[in-house]
């Protein structure tokens, strides 16, 4: 299993926030065909942003097809925004080199979660929505948002912009907060 990063939002952990929209778990799975920024390779890492929440993966040394498998948790607030990624090459003695960027609109995932609640789906697997490549995302190809045993999930490949080549695979999972019982 990969590592887990908890994002802190303005100094408050997401668990402590009043958050009707829930949480977004993002697994930065892998990169493919990343660009060379050093002599023969690169030392890539990914910065993931949602609003003012930021997380960074570990650096994978000398690799153009890195596997991170790192899970990151973001708190969601309405209106939900865009998930932004930037890939960099870690350099020891100078500023890190840009290796591309990508974005993905999270609203379709949130809308699919509302559909799941309206349909009262809790078991099995069902496709709730398909998302096609457009200006709201950097999708390489169509992606399905599914409900799998009650979880709303989406697997995506994002094309990196601003560079000759490169793709990043993400697995997204929307987690709604459990209702908190009132104490008397």
From TrEMBL:
<dbReference type="GO" id="GO:0009738">
    <property type="term" value="P:abscisic acid-activated signaling pathway"/>
</dbReference>
<keyword id="KW-0472">Membrane</keyword>
<dbReference type="InterPro" id="IPR044562">
    <property type="entry name" value="CAR1-11"/>
</dbReference>
<keyword id="KW-0343">GTPase activation</keyword>
<dbReference type="InterPro" id="IPR000008">
    <property type="entry name" value="C2_dom"/>
</dbReference>
<comment type="similarity">
    <text>Belongs to the plant CAR protein family.</text>
</comment>
<protein>
    <recommendedName>
        <fullName>C2 domain-containing protein</fullName>
    </recommendedName>
</protein>
<dbReference type="GO" id="GO:0008289">
    <property type="term" value="F:lipid binding"/>
</dbReference>
<keyword id="KW-0106">Calcium</keyword>
<dbReference type="GO" id="GO:0046872">
    <property type="term" value="F:metal ion binding"/>
</dbReference>
<keyword id="KW-0446">Lipid-binding</keyword>
<keyword id="KW-0539">Nucleus</keyword>
<keyword id="KW-0479">Metal-binding</keyword>
<feature type="domain" description="C2">
    <location>
        <begin position="9"/>
        <end position="119"/>
    </location>
</feature>
<dbReference type="InterPro" id="IPR035892">
    <property type="entry name" value="C2_domain_sf"/>
</dbReference>
<dbReference type="GO" id="GO:0005886">
    <property type="term" value="C:plasma membrane"/>
</dbReference>
<keyword id="KW-0938">Abscisic acid signaling pathway</keyword>
<dbReference type="GO" id="GO:0005634">
    <property type="term" value="C:nucleus"/>
</dbReference>
<dbReference type="Pfam" id="PF00168">
    <property type="entry name" value="C2"/>
</dbReference>
<dbReference type="GO" id="GO:0005096">
    <property type="term" value="F:GTPase activator activity"/>
</dbReference>
<keyword id="KW-1003">Cell membrane</keyword>
């Amino acid at each position: 299993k990969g590592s887990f990063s908890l994002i802190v939002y303005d100094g408050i952990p997401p668990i402590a926030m009043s958050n009707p929209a829930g949480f977004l778990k993002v697994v930065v799975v892998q990169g493919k065909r990343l660009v060379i920024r050093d002599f023969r390779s690169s030392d890539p890492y990914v910065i993931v942003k949602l609003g003012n929440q930021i997380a960074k993966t570990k650096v994978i040394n000398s690799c153009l097809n890195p596997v991170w498998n790192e899970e990151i948790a973001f708190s969601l607030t309405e209106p939900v925004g865009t998930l932004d990624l930037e890939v960099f090459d870690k350099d020891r003695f100078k500023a890190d080199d840009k290796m591309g960027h990508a974005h993905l609109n999270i609203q379709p995932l949130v809308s699919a979660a509302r559909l799941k609640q309206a349909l009262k789906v809790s078991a099995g697997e069902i496709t709730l929505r398909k998302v096609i490549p457009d200006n709201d995302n950097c999708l390489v190809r169509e992606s399905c948002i599914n409900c799998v045993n009650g979880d709303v999930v989406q697997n995506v490949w994002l094309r990196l912009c601003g560079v000759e080549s490169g793709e990043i695979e993400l697995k997204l999972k929307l987690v709604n907060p459990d209702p908190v019982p009132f104490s008397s």
